[in-house]
Design a protein that fits this description.
By secondary structure, the protein is an alpha/beta fold. The protein contains 16 helices and 15 strands. Strands 4-10-9-8-7-5-6 form a 7-stranded mixed β-sheet, sandwiched between helices. A 4-stranded mixed β-sheet has the order 1-2-3-13. A 4-stranded antiparallel β-sheet has the order 11-12-15-14, with helices on one face. Helix 15 packs across helix 16. The longest helix has 18 residues, at 113-130. The protein binds pyridoxal-5'-phosphate. Residues 112-114, 117, 146-148, 221, 225-226, 254, 256-257, 282 line the site of pyridoxal-5'-phosphate (PLP). Pyridoxal-5'-phosphate binds at residues 112-114, 117, 146-148, 221, 225-226, 254, 256-257, 282.
Amino acid sequence: MSTNQPNLDLSKFWMPFTANRQFKAAPRLFKAAKGMFYTTVDDRQVLDATAGLWCVNAGHGREEITKAVSEQLATMDYAPTFQMGHPLAFEAAAKVADFMPAGLDRIFFTNSGSESVDTALKMALAYHRARGEGQRTRFIGRERGYHGVGFGGISVGGILANRKTFSGNLMPHVDHLPHTLNIAESAFTRGQPTTGANLADELERIVALHDASTIAAVIVEPLAGSTGVLVPPKGYLERLREITSKHGILLIFDEVITAFGRLGAPTASEYFHVTPDIITMAKAINNATIPMGAVAASRAIHDTVVNAGAENAIEFFHGYTYTAHPAAAAAAVATLDIYKRDKLFERAAELSGTFEDAAHELKGSPHVKDVRNLGLVAGIELESRAGAMGARGYEVFLKCFEAGVLVRYTGDILAFSPPLIVDEKQIDQIFSTVRDALRDVA
Ligand SMILES: Cc1ncc(COP(=O)(O)O)c(C=O)c1O
């Protein structure tokens, strides 16, 4: 693709999680977005099978959100939330709390998923310290977990590439549970695998090694997306909840991709009927119009930390200049109203069967090793080419893009997470485009 702008200098923007040299040799650029489609700079329509990066759940270019943001910017561009406030921050918190499981209704705003994760980890430490258990400093993450890119997040995360360059400076006192993917036993499972709940018992082994009195929290994604769509085995999350509760360890669900309807329920916690102590979120909170994330804490955590502070003193030494930025808060209020009014989570639940069927029809296509799915999420794992991990995934991604469908790939795993407004015809277009691409790659 040409950039259509001969003078556009691609050298200055150091791109995130991108093969910069490869990309800049053959850039792919979008210039507009509406509904389910992006428009490329050379005027091609590309169907968005990834909701941007799992974040544009209400579809692109929602006028109500744009209007709310522009009116807010015209009225008040910015207001601090350190020792000051503005009504929209409180309104947005109340609306977010409304979507959370009962009891998790104390909302701390951030600007991204990574910041939400670091905030949650700090809340866990602050909570234990406030209860006189300041020796609980250890965190337990999980292999293949993705919790953003802060030092806290990569430490509890379980992705080699994100850790190895920084390995000498990761957060200390972190251990990891094994991941739950078992292709040998569960390939092509529709929904949750029936085996693997016992992997949660590994937490007992870790507790026996370190002692519960040293462990602050366990953090997992209830359904992991970025690392290749890992669906929790039936009973696994329930077991994690039981063990953490038994030992006074907090349970943090990182719902950066699952909160706001991805599984057809407001949160994965509600979908699985397992309530953690803290939920991190970001992506779909305001349809990705303005950067924003949030952390929902239980009242017990909030009240313990806040009530432990000295009178008239700050209780939690944490926050961001842009916490509850007025434009982001306006976008959140407008977005959360759309989710409710348009019943988008119910729509996601209704479409999930069609989506599952369409994804699983790729069983038997060339290179396909596994298909996994839940709600409006699907992952298709391909056999890797000998000595070239990720090459096939990239080629399929590129062919789909050229054929007018944006998919996501991580190594040789393709991931699908369309906006919740997707329709059956578009679901068909997504997976038939992938089928053709799979036929075309070596
Ligand atoms: C589960 C999870 N946590 C955290 C993050 C990090 O979010 P951000 O990129 O907004 O920092 C992501 C992003 O994909 C994620 O999927």
